[in-house]
Amino acid sequence: MIGIVVSRADHASTHIAERLLDLADWTQRQDDDRVDADGGGTYHVLDRTGAHGDERLELRTFDDLHIRLADPTPAFSERPDYLVFVSRHAGDTGPLLTCHFTGNFGAAEYGGEAGSFAPACPGVQRALLAGFDEHAPDEYGVAIEGTHHGPTALAVPAVFAEVGSDEAQWDDPAGAGAVARAVLDLPERGATVAVGDPERPRHVVGFGGGHYAPRFERVIRETAWGVGHVGIDWQLDELGHPEEHPEVLDAAIGASDADYALVADERPVLREALADRGVRVVGESWVRAVDDTPLDLVASLEAALCPVDDGLRFGERAGEGVDPDDGYRVVDLPATLLAEAQGIDADAAHAAVAAHTVGFETEQAGTRAAGRAAVPVVARDGGSDAAGPYDELVGALAAVLREKYDEVTREGDAVVARTESFDPERARTLGVPEGPKFGALSAGEAVEVNGRMIRPETVSREREEQFTV
Length: 469
Description:
The protein is α/β, with parallel strands linked by helices. Helix content is 31%, strand content 28%.
């Protein structure tokens, strides 16, 4: 169940609520056990069956401004899976739809408790951002914000869904309607609190950057990872020296349900403090490279090959349920064959390695395969081996060579490439003058010399290259 929290003290909030009620077939109900000011009285329920089964949304309205509310969870007829606070956004950013989690790295000037954080729901934020992208009017931007303000003492995860950035947008039916539609779409988008496996969610807790968080927004949009709380620069300034407030870091990590921290800039003291708490500090490139690769397999391959930060990249076979303990074998990439393929078509060579491996080492910022690779172990006549996948990799690299060579074959422990090429010495012995006629023969065209036709095959020779594999 999704609990939607509306504030009568926030005109944009009540406007979004009006659009929510207009857009779906809600049932009006009455709660006489709770006063109107605290979410009682008239409330609305939307029951429906969607792609993910039965779903319920319940809308309750409160007198106080959202950021000053005590926990609204008890007001709902059943415990929500998460809360969505529909709200205004204020700033100098022009028309904007935005969302964020709540908490305070320092003092609680705008609600909540100091050094406290509401439970985040990164999976809901991902779905909400996608809904904003779909429904935002043309003149509206879409963004996420860093963690700020209250409430913080919430029994269930929560996110703010906002329209801004001033009265023109708070009164705009199109802006309010876009937020309403994004909220109504959450069940259909499969929005859940966690991203990935709920037992080991794929979450980062974030640190650094401005109030609007494009780095973390990119992670949400472009990778399989979710983002929990984000300690933006001004919040970290309020935090002060992280070792003086270790409980605040612990609270932000715990409320994000994160084993990983993405730090947007250097901050060596913060990085050390996070590592001391068992959180792995990673960069955006690590998150992008890992993407949806199983995390146990990532750890295994980093130990067997090299860390992601040193060039480990993951192949397409990593998504096939490979056992991280014994589901792959480390082999040396065929160096000379790989180098020749890269010289012919670097992109095709990289794609060939990626298509046939679980993971592989790279150089040049991850763009060029080099060194070793992990190939999957597959069943073979009652046993298992990695020879087949390795041979497939060799075959894929050999196929790249066919762009340059006339014949490419596998002969034992080598790939042999042959081509017919123009032989200048043979041409000279037949009296062909250097210049345009050399060029024509090299291009496969016959030429006339002293009344005699010289055909290209007459002045060509076979060249053979062998690449040990």
